[in-house]
């Protein structure tokens, strides 16, 4: 059920990226997609009534939470923050040049 909700969240973000014409809404859709992906990775590593993978001498834990997806998500958050900052800065530069965020009104870019 929760995996389905992640898929719905991903679909909402994908809709925002593919169907909206405003650059700000496209960026928000991209952020929603990233959040859905992070949530999915965290849910993959989750175990019901799981414990942290810290062992004492002679102790055996049968239900350990997997720390690898958590580490991957921490790395992915940093990367997505950089991507979001880059996309926002590009959107600001496009707005400075064309005075609109509407991608249908933006003329062909000339270098």
How does this model look, in words?
Helix content is 65%, strand content 0%. The protein has 111 residues and is mainly α. α1 packs antiparallel against α2 and α2 runs antiparallel to α3. It has a single domain, classed as Helix Hairpins (Orthogonal Bundle). The chain has helices at residues 2-19, 23-45, 68-98. The chain contains three helices and no strands.
Write the layout of secondary structure elements.
Elements: H1 2-19, H2 23-45, H3 68-98
Brief sketch in words of this structure:
The chain has one domain (2-49, 64-98): Helix Hairpins (Orthogonal Bundle), CATH 1.10.287.3510.
State the main characteristics.
single chain, 111 residues, mainly alpha, Helix Hairpins, 3 helices, 0% strand
Helix percentage: 55-70%
CATH class: Mainly Alpha
Number of discrete helical segments: 3
The whole-number mean of residue pLDDT values reads 89
Query: Which percent band covers the strand fraction?
Result: under 5%
What is the global morphology? Answer: elongated
Overall radius of gyration: 20 Å
